[in-house]
């Protein structure tokens, strides 16, 4: 009889433990991750380029970027992504502070941006709620590209990219997506060749 009581007690403990974890997971799935505040000092230290501004150029109704507004990493201002990028081709890079391949790729994107000039907009999208950590990572890497914070991974969802990083999105001047590159570029020439092939812009 005592053995039966012990077995029942153990079963209850195990059930409560598993049930508690499942409940926590359920709660976590329905709760948006908290976004820590970013200080003006963090933004100043990163010294990022200003985010692109709307030019009034038309945006295709088929652009997956329509309706997405994100926070500019440089100053915290809202950025209407489709409107801000309209008018010229763009390379949008999805990354996160904890991503090793992203840290290797970002300097290449910086060099490519300097090489291609105003012909292509290169925009980074920090795809993680820890915006302050993203800014700190950019500061440490010496990256000054314009960037936006995307804690809810709206861009990844909009272009239906897989849950991996880095991802680069090649966008036409009208906001339509040409290609989603699910890989890390390995050289500036690799970036230049890909953009030239997909968007027709040579660096």
TrEMBL record:
GO terms for cellular component: cell envelope. PROSITE patterns: THIOREDOXIN_1, THIOREDOXIN_2. One of its GO terms (biological process) is cytochrome complex assembly. The keyword Zinc does not apply. It is found in: Cell envelope. Its main location: other. Gene3D superfamilies: Glutaredoxin. Residues 59-200 form the Thioredoxin domain. Pfam families: Redoxin. Keywords: Cytochrome c-type biogenesis, Disulfide bond, Redox-active center, Signal-anchor, Transmembrane. One of its GO terms (molecular function) is oxidoreductase activity. It comes from the Bacteria. PANTHER family: THIOL:DISULFIDE INTERCHANGE PROTEIN DSBE (PTHR42852). This is TlpA family protein disulfide reductase.
